[in-house]
């Protein structure tokens, strides 16, 4: 029975290690173009950035997956001017509840620490770029 328990514990440790490594792969460092946003760091993120975009998404959402590369591209194009973040609505429910987000993807745009705009649904890159440029004026 002890040998079985040891094998079981070893296998559990392997699984925990795999899960931990998967989570750390999803967390991007602070200097990354698109930051991981949570209920805990949302206020800090929009507060410390003059202009910020938060993509509220879910991993299972098709339109969200289509928007993701657009957000990545725009984060490079607007580097140094606009900060970009992504918030998984399945893992973080407080921010979506606070802003009444019931459809995804939803993009929140904040200026000087306050959410000033929201875009619901898959938005074409050209339209999103035009909207963001208007906030830089």
List the helices and strands and how they pair.
Layout: H1 2-26, E1 34-37, H2 42-48, E2 51-57, H3 62-77, E3 83-88, H4 94-98, E4 106-111, E5 114-120, H5 125-136
Parallel strand pairs: 1-3, 2-3
Antiparallel strand pairs: 2-4, 4-5
Question: Can you give a write-up of this model?
Answer:
By secondary structure, the protein is an alpha/beta fold. It has a single domain (30-136), classed as Glutaredoxin, CATH 3.40.30.10. It has five helices and five strands, in the order αβαβαβαββα. It has helices spanning 2-26, 42-48, 62-77, 94-98, 125-136, and strands spanning 34-37, 51-57, 83-88, 106-111, 114-120. A five-stranded mixed sheet has the order 1-3-2-4-5, sandwiched between helices. The radius of gyration is 18 Å and the shape is elongated. The termini are far apart. Residues 23-32 have low confidence and may be disordered.
């Amino acid at each position: 029975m002890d040998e079985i328990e040891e094998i079981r514990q070893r296998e559990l440790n392997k699984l925990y290690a795999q899960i931990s490594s998967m989570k750390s792969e999803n967390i991007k460092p602070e200097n990354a173009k698109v930051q991981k946003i949570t209920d805990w760091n949302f206020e800090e993120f929009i507060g410390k950035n003059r202009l910020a975009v938060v993509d509220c998404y879910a991993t299972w959402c098709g339109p969200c997956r289509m928007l993701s590369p657009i957000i990545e591209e725009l984060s490079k194009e607007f580097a140094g001017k606009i900060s970009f973040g992504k918030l998984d609505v399945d893992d973080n429910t407080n921010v979506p509840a606070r802003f009444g987000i019931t459809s995804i993807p939803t993009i929140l745009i904040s200026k000087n620490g306050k959410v000033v705009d929201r875009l619901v649904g898959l938005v074409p890159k050209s339209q999103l770029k035009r909207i963001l440029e208007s906030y830089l004026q």
